[in-house]
Amino acid sequence: MATNDSVGILNSAYLAVEYIDSFLPENPLQQPFKNAWTYMLNNYTKYQIATWGSLLMHELSYFLICLPGFIFQFIPYMQKYKIQQDKPETWERQWKCFKALMFNHFFIQFPLILGTYYFTEYFNIPYDWESMPRWYVLLSQCFGCAVIEDAWHYFLHRLLHHKRIYKYIHKVHHEFVAPFGMQAEYAHPLETLILGTGFFIGIMVFCNHVILLWAWVICRLLETIDVHSGYDIPLNPLHLVPFYAGARFHDFHHMNFIGNYASTFTWWDKLFGTDSQYNSYREKLEKQECMVEKKTK
């Protein structure tokens, strides 16, 4: 009975969103996107799209999303939004990070990307335009992937902090006490495989078109680069996502090493009390800010 009720609620929600969507103006980018997608299908094989398209999507998305944070370090006005202002980025650290990223991207992640075509073929996942899910379905699928990945990340990330194994694997990622965007995927190769597994679980559950692979890549990169950015930018649209952790939440994890283990949402840390040190830290900061305000009045 409960299952039938849940299905009914989901169907009602889907119909409601579909009804609202029918009143929205036509997306001016839809036709150019359709033309580009059709051109891609007509000129490249499924193997080329799944393999080289996925690699290109990951690399372009990663460094384009990193670009604003990279530029912020040269803009004095933006420094007031930097969370750990006493620890500026250095060229030496950024170059070290970039070299490690290139190794991980092409020697760890790319071999996994090579399996994308065979995954789509085995599960008969379509590539055609007509089968592509609507934007709200795609958005809900990405949210579902994020929920699954977040659960996987919390428990495995917490395990990697165990004192018996921390120094062998996860310590690499914590070389940077004050994170910056490009450092999001700076990690030991084993950690890339262990935590990266959570990315693929959601795909196996929800994927009904190859576009979800790319949409989820972009969503995941947006989130992980944002929380590693080192900047708490006001009016960040990601803060509209319910229970979103954000840069301050994860920045504290790098600064403190203990607690705030989740990747995207705050509920696992709240449930298990692993955000207690962060909450105490925030309360202390708020008290200090109140005292400063009283002195200036």
From TrEMBL:
A Gene Ontology cellular component where this protein is annotated is: membrane
Organism superkingdom: Eukaryota
InterPro entries linked: Fatty_acid_hydroxylase, Sterol_Desaturase_Related
Say yes or no: keyword Transmembrane helix present. yes
First-listed, main subcellular location of the protein, grouped into a coarse class: membrane
Provide the Fatty acid hydroxylase domain boundaries.
144-274
Looking at the Swiss-Prot or TrEMBL record, what is one Pfam family this protein matches?
Answer: FA_hydroxylase
Instruction: List the keywords (alphabetical).
Output: Membrane, Transmembrane, Transmembrane helix
Name its cellular compartments.
Answer: Membrane
Q: Which GO terms describe its molecular function?
A: iron ion binding; oxidoreductase activity
Question: Membrane spanning segments where?
Answer: 60-79, 100-120, 192-217
Report any one BP term from Gene Ontology: lipid biosynthetic process
> Does Transmembrane show up as a keyword for this record?
yes
Protein name (Swiss-Prot/TrEMBL): Methylsterol monooxygenase 1
> Can you name the source organism?
Podarcis muralis
Q: What is the lineage of its organism?
A: Eukaryota, Metazoa, Chordata, Craniata, Vertebrata
The encoding gene: LOC114604312
